[in-house]
Amino acid sequence: MPLSFADIPGWTRDDHAAAWAAFCVTADLYGMVAADTDDPKASFEALFEPYEIAPEGAAHFTGYYEPELPGAREKSDRFAWPLYAKPGEIGSNSPWYCRAEIAAGDLLAEHELVWLESPIEAYLAQVQGSLRVRFADRGSLRLGFDGKNGHPYRSIGKELIARGAAPAEGMTPEFIRRWAAENPDQLQGLLDHNPSFVFFRVLDIPGDTGPLGAMGRPVSAGRSLAVDPEVVPLGSPVWIDCPGFGQRLMVAQDVGSAIKGAGRGDLFIGTGADAGRIAGAINAKGRMIGLRRRA
Fold first, then answer.
1. What is the C-alpha to C-alpha distance for residues 251 and 253, in angstroms, rounded to an integer?
2. Are 78 and 110 in contact (CB under 8 A)?
3. Counting Cβ atoms within 10 Å, is residue 294 exposed (0-12), middle (13-18) or buried (19+)?
4. Distance between CA atoms of 128 and 144, rounded to whole angstroms?
5. How is the beta sheet containing 130-134 ordered, strand by strand?
6. How far apart are CA 270 and CA 66, in angstroms?
7. Residue 1, pLDDT score
8. Residue 50 forms beta bridges with which residues?
């Protein structure tokens, strides 16, 4: 339903300049020319009109981040868990092997890009879809999403809840890490519950920018949102009211396997462990308001 900006709680208090800067990153791909402005709040109000996507309590927000992890270019006793490049035989029309088949058959040998310290961190890096790897020689590498094997994503957190390992409110990435450390003999079986497998590519982007989102441009910490593009147009501004995180204007610049339906949003928090802790704690019901171009 149509709304006015006066109907948006917290609208006047937001940092509209930060939101405008994020919007400008992909404005051309959204079909707009976003020029510099001395009054970004007025610019948003002049160019867009708000509409309800999901009313209070109907939106579901989670968070994601870019891990920053130690790693190695070659396999060793410490660094024995790889992330992989996409094999050339993977097409877009039919599923490739599932996660269990890939692991059992070592089907990605010779496609290793980098080696990490643990299987659960390698798995969680796939869930996030991007990461920064730090090497002992002080060098680093940025990796970004380069496709999947074509199988549906299934949450290992939900599987642990179904097994009675923890209640839903206690299921966080930190719990999954603890469970993995305490149950190493059961970990591969848990990971195999998710048949989806993510491949990476090396990114040549400045170190002070975020990872690349679905639009092929860097996402902005605290201002970029992953959405279902069937519901929310990529590149469009989106107002979120997320308990525990706040009210602010974000930009739909990314997608995710589990981000489906009206009101589903995944908030990009930033890079590193602190961002990971914040992102992992976000699991809230709130409100989502879209901004569409005025006719």
1. 6
2. no
3. exposed
4. 9
5. 68-70, 130-134, 140-148, 198-203
6. 6
7. 61
8. 291
Q: Tens of pLDDT along 108-160?
A: 999 999 999 999 999 999 999 999 999 999 899 999 999 999 999 999 999 99
Identify which of 193, 176, 197, 30 has the alpha carbon closest to the alpha carbon of residue 22: 30
pLDDT digits (tens, 9 = 90+) for 27-48: 999 999 988 999 999 999 999 9
d(CA 229, CA 142): 26
How many C-beta atoms surround the C-beta of residue 3 within 10 A?
A: 15
Cα–Cα distance list, 193 to 145, 152, 268, 287 (Å): 21, 11, 26, 32
* DSSP helix/strand/coil, 290: strand
- Per DSSP, the residues of 179-247 read HHHH-HHHHHHHHTT----EEEEEE---TTS--B-TTSSB--TTTEEE--TTTS-TT-EEEEEETTTEE
Q: What is the pTM of this model?
A: 0.91
- Per-residue pLDDT of 47-93, as tens digits, reads 999 999 999 999 999 999 999 999 999 999 999 999 999 999 887 67
Stretch 226-246: mean pLDDT: 97
For residue 30, give both structure tokens: 């959204």
Beta strand pairing call for 237-242 and 198-203: unpaired
